[in-house]
Amino acid sequence: MAKLSLASLCTSIIPPNRNVLRIKHPNQSLTAYTSAFVNLLGIKRGTNLSSYTQLWLAFAISGAMHANSMLGLPRPLNITTTECTIGMLQFFLWQAFAITSEDFVMWLCRRGFGGTGPRWMRAWVGGAWVVGSFWYSMAFAGDVMLRMRLGEETFLPGTVVGGLVREWVPVPP
Fold first, then answer.
1. CA distance 28 to 58
2. DSSP single-letter state for residue 117
3. pTM of the predicted structure, to 2 decimals
4. Of 54, 89, 90, 166, which one has the fewest beta carbons inside 10 Å?
5. Inter-residue long-range contacts of 14-20, CB under 8 Å, 24+ positions, other chains counted
6. In angstroms, rounded to a whole number, what is the distance separating the alpha carbons of residues 11 and 20?
């Protein structure tokens, strides 16, 4: 029987030709972990299940890290831990949902209409999808920021757009 070691476990999860420690872009670190997770579960590479598992896991990890970072910021005493974190997690999970939904709609169009339409139409519809989805999801993160009263005071000695923000964004008492 082969001796089980940490090194043998790691090389069975992460292929030896992948250097997890050599990261050139922040997303690469999540890619290494999500890829290892997919390998650990035995999900076949290159499948939709593999792609969407990695997508959702990466956004969940990123959302959890951003939500956790909110815990280190000062907040009013009446704001609970859930109130200062859940919106950030919802924001990041919404991005994964939006990407998955967009892929599904494109798949339906290819299947139902034999294509996704002219290039200009894809650009306009895709752009509207991104702007609309991002606009909708900003409420999740924005609610957390307003509850915690972030941005109420500037960290810098002056502000370029502070007057406009105070005029356009009413901060509750």
1. 10
2. -
3. 0.71
4. 166
5. 14/39, 15/39
6. 11
pLDDT in tens, the chain (173 residues): 445 554 444 444 455 555 444 555 555 678 888 888 999 999 999 999 999 999 999 999 999 999 999 998 888 899 999 999 999 999 999 999 999 998 888 888 878 777 767 788 878 888 899 999 999 999 999 999 888 888 777 666 777 777 787 778 776 66
Give whole-number Cα distances, 150 to 55, 83, 145, in Å.
29, 14, 5
- Work out the end-to-end distance of the chain between its first and last CA atoms, rounded to an integer number of angstroms: 68
Amino acid identity, residue 130?
A: V
**CA 25 to chain CA centroid, nearest Å:** 15
